[in-house]
Amino acid sequence: MDFTENLGLDRYPYPSRRMPLFARRGVVATEEPLAAQAGLRMLLRGGNAVDAAIATAIALTVTEPVANGIGSDTFVLVWDGERLHALNGSGRACAAHTPRFFADRGLTAVPMRGWSSVTVPGAPAAWRDLHARFGRLPFEVLFEPAIEYAEQGFPVAPLTAARWAASARGYASFADAADTKGWYDTFTRGGRVPGAGETWSCPDMGRTLRRLAESGVESFYRGDVAKLIAEFAARTDGHLTLADLAAHTSTWVDPIRVRYRGYDVWEVPPNGNGIVALSALAILDGIDLAKHPRESVESYHLQIEAIKLAFADASRYVADPAFVDLPVQGLLDPSYASLRRAQIGERAAVPEPGAPPKGGTVYLCAADADGMMVSLIQSNYSGPLLGFGSGVVVPETGISLQSRGCAFSLDPTSPNVIAPGKRPAHTIIPGFLTRDGAAVGPFGVMGGPMQPQGHVQMVVNQIDYGMNPQTSVDAPRWQWLQDLYVDLESSVPDDVKMALAARGHDLTVSGPWDVANAVPRPTPKGKYVAYGDFGKAQIICRRRDGTYVAGSESRADGCAVGY
Length: 563
Fold this sequence. Notes:
By secondary structure, this protein is of the alpha+beta class. The chain has a domain at 25-251 and 362-407. 33% of the residues lie in helices and 19% in strands. Strands 1-22-21-15-14-9-8 form a seven-stranded antiparallel beta sheet. It has a seven-stranded antiparallel beta sheet with strand order 7-4-3-11-10-2-23, covered by helices on one side. Strands 16-17-18 form a three-stranded mixed beta sheet. A hairpin with a 5-residue loop joins strand 21 (536-542) and strand 22.
């Protein structure tokens, strides 16, 4: 089955949503339309897919500040026309952040807000390093659309505005905190946030982006911007220093993969969670999903149980490979996948890790006329307040700092225990598909722990059920939360919901936009979950005739654009 040729509209019509985009010379797809246009502008100026992706990523820090910012992390997969490359642009813990640091403060977990959650931002360095290896246009040109949006203003998209407002409600209790007061000064006007369609500007962000463009982002890690960050930290009981910033580096790594029904599915290796998606697909590869209808209890149940087992292993083993010996190949070994597959029964089960043999986010994808393709994801993280990372915003810079540190463990037996200079286990993951050594295309689904679950669903939709990129994106989704708890999108058929409940799944049902309008609530066991956060997906596939087919998330503001 070749889903890049088959539209699948007759089999899986979701008429209230979008049709796929077809383009020959270049495509950009992301969750915010003005950012997508920024990337398209680079293609029209003679830039390649990497130029388009970087320009889009930079523009998203301005036009979608809830989910990402200049202080974010970035992971990238690049198909150069012949092979795939992976860039880990995630940051590391501050030198001060030891387990003793948190124990002395009486903490049993890393907070989700404030300086204690901040790690060194990796996004600016990732933009620079990605461009240095693959870019075509001058680096400073890639900043131009973002600077225009920041300085001249842009109309805020509807769902971005809704999430901005939800974040403001969450931040209300932090209004007077020294480290997060900058959020109010930067992202509200006297406490008021922009409504849908309202023009918003951020001159502070524009000035910072100009400094980064002019210095090749050196100012962020060793120059005047770094000094502003470090001085603000020193004034507000923060721990990020000039030395922490100057020590940061991106890392080029070898991507990892599994075979799935004749295709190769690729991810960035840990510390990212891409291995969760690959582990689940390795389990599912030994099951004939296609014999069950897409909207059937069997298909949903098998996918949910596979992702549970994959997450259980990841929580036990995944961490920064510079600090621990990860059994990456063991987790993906077919014989180990077979053992895990055998644990799937007819009823829902609480997952436990196995013993393998030793061995808040924006996503975008871009492609150009020469066949170069990029899968890029960027995030400042969110936690239960739904946006803006740690809430720490450096005054007069527009820089919101990420909260990735809250993903560390304080359990000394965990491979993910916090340590100076260590990268935390990461949720954000870009994906890519190839077949017989040729690129099929990039895909991704942002949304915290929904991401590997979304990757599995997008791959299954396309390969097992022959769905094109847009119908794959539009199809009903599920999200496993913890233990037996599963959140279903309201569009899942009622008979499937009832049958899953009969198999022991503890279900909630959410609308696809609930996450934009509600403060997350805890599950019965206390874990805070953004109910209704089924992610935001983007997919580009290349047909055998060279035409690109793109799908863009109908649950978000964005679009796929091309020419």
